[in-house]
Amino acid sequence: MRILDLLFGTQRSFLERSLFTTVEVGLRYFLFAGLAWILAYWLFRRRWFHRKIIARFPMSADIRRELGYSLLTLVIFGVIGAGTIVASRAGYTQMYWRISDHGRGWFFGSVVCAIFLHDAYFYWTHRLMHHRLLFPIFHRVHHLSTNPSPWAAYAFAPAEAVVEASIFPVVALAMPIHPAAFGLVMLWQIFFNVAGHTGFEFHPRWLMNTPLRYFLNTPTNHVMHHEKMRGNYGLYFNIWDRLMGTNHPDYESRFREVTSRPLPSPLHSPTRTHEIKPPSGRPVPHRDDASCV
């Protein structure tokens, strides 16, 4: 409860709230992205390389850019988070502070509802930011990472960071939610976000042979979005992309190709420029020239 008091206590100034929220969001970001980096890009770099969706590693300059924009995003998340808390304390949202007010059943039910709300919010704002008039202002920075790393999870332009952070007030306005419940939603978010940007496909190859393919999203789906610049707009689930017909036409075949690659030989040493060739003998494509829509 001490952490909740620091973040949501009534005696905190706006600056203190912004600072504590920034630190809290930053700890989550560096914990999850750092762990993914250590596992995929250091400890198991060779063992897992056959599951690298784009079969090369990002350049150091890309990593520095992703970290720089992510640090700015953390500050913006902190400020909007603090503003939402102030508004909630003033009674302008449906956020509540005692679990007993709505019971444990709704506490966990609100987590599920908020996850589905966030998935819909992400899909539609993401599609909107791909409009040719909005893309340069909102989304171009994130798409500088055509071969993303875990650090790209929060690599947003300031305008997009505001859009992404606004899920907090949207959820707090839309439904009764306890701050700890929203914290669980954000743990779910950072896990999926980092997993989608790490660049490795961890799902089993049989996923595309089951009904789960209509529901779950995969790292292949999101990495293809970075690579192709259009299609695959979803976050957690593949529901909206399938309903709206916005899955990339090669998504399922690309997933099957990635998950069917043979294990690397003991002498294999991946480099930044190494490319895996599929059975056709052609290099795995990294990007097409499709413009944003």
What does this structure look like?
The structure is a single chain. By secondary structure, the chain is mainly α. The chain has a domain at about 1-195. It has helices at about 1-10, 15-45, 60-90, 105-130, 135-140, 160-165, 165-175, 180-200, 220-230, 240-245, 250-260. Helix 2 (about 15-45) packs parallel to helix 8 (about 180-200) and helix 3 crosses helix 6. The longest helix has 30 residues, at about 15-45. The chain starts with a helix and ends in a 34-residue tail after the last helix.
The number of distinct β-strands equals: 0
Give a short account of the largest sheet.
none
**Gap from first CA to last CA:** 46 Å
Low-confidence stretches: 272-293
Determine the strand fraction and express it as a percent band. Answer: under 5%
| Number of helical regions | 11
Global shape: globular
Rg, Å, rounded: 20 Å
Class from secondary-structure proportions: mainly alpha
Average pLDDT for all residues: 90
* Order of SSEs: HHHHHHHHHHH
Helix content: 40-55%
Give a topology summary.
Elements lengths: L1 H7 L5 H30 L16 H30 L13 H27 L5 H4 L19 H8 L1 H8 L4 H20 L20 H10 L10 H6 L6 H9 L34
Helix pairs in contact: 2-3, 2-8, 3-6, 4-8, 8-9
